Amino acid sequence: MPVTGRLADAVADHRAGPRPLRELPAVPGVEVTERWMPGPPGGPEVRVRVYRPAGAGPALPAVLWIHGGGFVLGNVDSVHHSAAQAASFASAVVVAVAYRLAPEDPFPAGLDDCWAALEWTAGNAKEIGADPARLAVAGASSGGCLAAGLTLLARDRGGPGLVFQHLSTPVLDDRLETGSMTAYVDTPIWNRRLAQESWELYLGTGRGRAPVYASPARAGDLGGLPPAYISTAGLDPLRDEGLLYGLRLAQAGVPVELHNFPGAYHAFGGSAGTPDPDDQHRIALEHLTALRRGLNVAGERPHGSGAI
C-alpha cells in the first residue's frame, strides 16, 4: 500500500489485524494451517501460518517468511499469496509470522517475535514436516531487515542453524547516509522522508545508537552468516544500503548473489518510463528460483556473483 502522507497517519487510518484464515482465498496445491505459539519471555503469543505443498512428504526445507510494511504496517494477510507460491515453487514449508508492530511495540518487540517463531520452527520441524538442517529466513523491505537481524542473532547465539537468507529491497541502515537515500527524497512507494519516519517509529524515543540487530548494516563483522540472495531496485532510496551490505557479506567470505533491477521503484511496485508487462513476472520468477536454489541445492552455495 503506497503511503502518500505520514506513516503515523497511515497507521491510524489503515492498521488492521489479519483476517480469519477461512476468509482468505485458497491456493491450489498448498495446505495452510494457522497456529499460536509461545512468544518471547514476557511477550504475548505469536500467530504463525504454515504453508505446505499438498501431499508433500516429510523433511522439506523450511523458511521463515517475514512481511514488510516499514515496521508499522502490514500483516500476514499481505504475504498470503507469496508465501503459498514460495511453498509450492520451492517445495518447502513456509512459516509466515505475525509480529508486533511499532509504534505501539517498538524494537525489539517485532524482532523478538520473529526470533520466537524461528526457534519454534526449528524446534517443531518434525511436527510441521520440515528438515531442521535446511532452515532459512526471507523478508522484503522492513521484513528483510528483520530477517537479516535474525541471521546475526542466530550466529551470535549459536543457533538455530540457517542455510540461507533471502532479502528483497531490504531496509538495513538507520543512518540514512547512502547516495541513493540522499538522492531519492520524493520517489513513489518509498523515499527518504518515509524512511526517516519509519526508523523513528521503530526505534522509539530516547534511544541512542541503533543496535546492530535493529540496523544490520551497523554490524562490524558479517562473517559466519548464511549464504544470501539480495535484490535491490534502481530507483529505491534503499538501493545502496542493500548493495553495500551484499558487498560486505562477500568481503566477509559469505556466498552472496546480488541483483539490482534498474529502473524499478521500491519493492518493485512500479518502474520509471513505460513499464514492461513482463518485468513483474521476471522478477518474481528470479526471486522464487533463488529461494529454491538456496534451500534445495545440497552441497552447493549460491553463486558469488550476480547482476549489479
UniProtKB/TrEMBL annotation:
The keyword Hydrolase applies. It comes from the Bacteria. Residues 63-268 form the Alpha/beta hydrolase fold-3 domain. Keywords: Hydrolase. The keyword Hydrolase applies. It holds the Pfam family Abhydrolase_3. GO terms for molecular function: hydrolase activity. Gene3D superfamilies: alpha/beta hydrolase. PANTHER family: AB HYDROLASE SUPERFAMILY PROTEIN C4A8.06C, ALPHA_BETA HYDROLASE FOLD-3 DOMAIN-CONTAINING PROTEIN-RELATED. This is Alpha/beta hydrolase. It comes from Streptomyces poriferorum.
